[in-house]
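stage 2 :: seqdesign
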């Protein structure tokens, strides 16, 4: 029931006036090409931006030719029950054509747009055309026997009666009998610390079955905020947590209050109170507290699905550490892409947030300067404590010389109930190796030369061990304005263990327009050629540089397959 975000795409200034009328009527953000004023968001490539919005189930409105939209989304089309709404609108607003998702909002969206632009909504869905509604487009309900909806629609078009039953109880239905389960039920859960999730799941399943309640009607779950980190409760989606004071308000409505529970947590019942708090003031308890060995549940029914739209409780806060890779968004993993879209807050160093600004829709930015790493992490944690979904944005991989370890260090010192997730990204050393050829084809290590947090003596020991161990070594933070000689000392340590022709990769601004990758000889290295944004990768004694037919130099580190190769 979560409302879809709406993305309105224009390709030029002539479409802006219509796009602005659409935005005023249905909401959303206007996306236009770089440099076009009057847009909320900008993109470099239209097809890529449209596909991105469609992939994450935004409602896509294109003030452009339908073919542009079709070609952009074609590789991502799945089925009529999964595809997001896509609507094509003529630049003058005269024609409005739903392309996909007609049964899931596109037809209604097209009508609303046509009203705003004084255009014509070209609805082609048979039941919409004849009856003005689609049988498989329930509002706030789940169609239980979807397999029968085509037969029911055909029967209705033939003039035969079709029953549409709306119930929270299980019902078979059939070709002339469609069953809709409204999203109106809430489940409150209480349990002992460490309860097996399977016990709670079994208790719920048995309770629903005993009362012949359709699981599809259960929309929200709730508990006391002391349980925010309880796996037995968090196994369910759409969980909201309430403070003791919020649950106390429900005390007069409880069917089975407990003095023992009140003494333990400050409220006479968790399961019933949470279920009622979610169902709203007009809701009612339909299944009073049911117990298992270590858990309790209760079920309440809201007066309508709309009463569940804005629960007073809060979701469990999450800090998702996302690695956006070394540069452009094309290097991000799909998983990171999804987490950025799903988050409500973006926290990070301003440069990193700027790199992904074109992906932001309604997320709130929280910018920090370079050097405020602890403040950055604490702010992300504080937002999560408020129930926010936070993306803590890191370059490269969040667990490699980035914020993941610091977040865990902070919650280790000051425990809290938020969730922490780490979503890996492409690190600079991986990208540098790939650009150069295959430098990390054998054993390798990464060493930061910054002594701001690590004593120089420790760094020296690590460089020495890596040199003696014949690792390919990637040096991060090789030089800064104040720290100019560490990279020189590192090369002095390596010199007895590397020959003059050992390939060295100097890579900076990877994945960005200013990208620069060079391969030089160990003996030709000069410290003044690198800065804080350069990654320096030194090969092992086995690494080689080769010049191919295109005249370019490549470097690789053999894995040892030569011993097994057939003679040339």
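stage 2 :: out
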């Amino acid at each position: 029931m979560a409302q879809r975000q709406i993305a309105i795409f224009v390709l030029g200034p002539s479409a802006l006036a219509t796009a602005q009328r659409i935005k005023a009527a249905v909401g959303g953000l206007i996306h236009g090409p770089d440099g076009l004023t009057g847009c909320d968001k900008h993109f470099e490539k239209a097809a890529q931006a449209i596909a991105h919005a469609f992939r994450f189930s935004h409602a896509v409105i294109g003030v452009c030719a339908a073919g542009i939209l079709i070609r952009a989304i074609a590789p991502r089309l799945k089925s009529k029950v999964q595809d997001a709404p896509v609507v094509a609108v003529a630049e003058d607003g005269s024609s409005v054509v739903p392309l996909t998702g007609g049964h899931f909002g596109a037809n209604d969206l097209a009508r609303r747009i046509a009203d705003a632009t004084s255009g014509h909504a070209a609805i082609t869905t048979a039941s919409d055309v004849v009856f003005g509604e689609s049988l498989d487009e329930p509002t706030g309900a789940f169609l239980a026997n979807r397999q029968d909806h085509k037969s029911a629609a055909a029967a209705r078009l033939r003039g035969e009666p079709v029953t549409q039953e709306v119930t929270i109880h299980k019902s078979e239905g059939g070709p002339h009998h469609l069953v809709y389960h409204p999203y109106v039920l809430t489940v409150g859960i209480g349990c002992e610390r460490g309860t097996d999730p399977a016990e709670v799941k079994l208790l719920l399943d048995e309770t629903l079955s005993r009362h012949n309640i359709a699981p599809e009607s259960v929309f929200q779950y709730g508990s006391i905020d002391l349980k925010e980190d309880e796996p037995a409760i968090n196994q369910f989606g759409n969980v909201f947590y309430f403070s003791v004071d919020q649950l106390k308000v429900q005390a007069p409505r409880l069917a089975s209050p407990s003095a023992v529970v009140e003494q333990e947590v400050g409220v006479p019942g968790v399961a019933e109170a949470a279920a009622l708090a979610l169902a709203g003031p007009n809701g009612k308890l339909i299944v009073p507290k049911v117990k298992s060995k270590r858990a309790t549940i209760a079920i309440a029914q809201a007066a309508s699905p709309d009463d569940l739209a804005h629960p007073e409780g809060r979701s469990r806060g999450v800090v998702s550490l996302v690695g956006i890779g070394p540069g452009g968004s094309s290097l991000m993993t799909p998983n990171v892409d999804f987490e950025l879209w799903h988050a409500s807050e973006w926290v990070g160093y301003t440069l990193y947030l700027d790199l992904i600004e074109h992906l932001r829709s309604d997320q709130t930015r929280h910018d920090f300067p370079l050097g405020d790493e602890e403040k950055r992490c604490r702010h992300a944690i504080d937002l999560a404590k408020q129930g926010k979904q936070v993306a803590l944005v890191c370059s490269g991989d969040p667990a490699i010389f980035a914020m993941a370890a610091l977040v865990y260090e902070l919650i280790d010192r000051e425990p809290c109930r938020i969730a922490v997730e780490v979503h890996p990204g492409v690190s600079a050393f991986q990208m540098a190796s790939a650009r150069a050829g295959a430098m990390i084809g054998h054993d390798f290590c990464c060493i930061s030369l910054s002594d701001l947090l690590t004593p120089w003596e420790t760094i020296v020991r690590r460089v020495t061990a890596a040199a003696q161990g014949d690792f390919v070594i990637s040096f991060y933070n090789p030089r800064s304005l104040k720290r100019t000689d560490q990279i020189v000392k590192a090369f002095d340590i390596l010199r007895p263990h590397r020959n003059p022709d050992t390939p060295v990769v100097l890579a900076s601004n990877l994945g960005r327009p200013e990208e620069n990758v060079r391969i030089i000889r160990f003996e030709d290295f000069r410290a003044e050629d690198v800065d804080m944004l350069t990654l320096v990768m030194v090969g092992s004694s086995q690494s080689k540089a080769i010049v191919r037919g295109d005249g370019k130099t490549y470097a690789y580190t053999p894995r040892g397959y030569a011993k097994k190769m057939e003679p040339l």
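stage 3 :: structure notes
- Residues 197-210 form the longest helix (14 residues).
- The mean pLDDT is 91.
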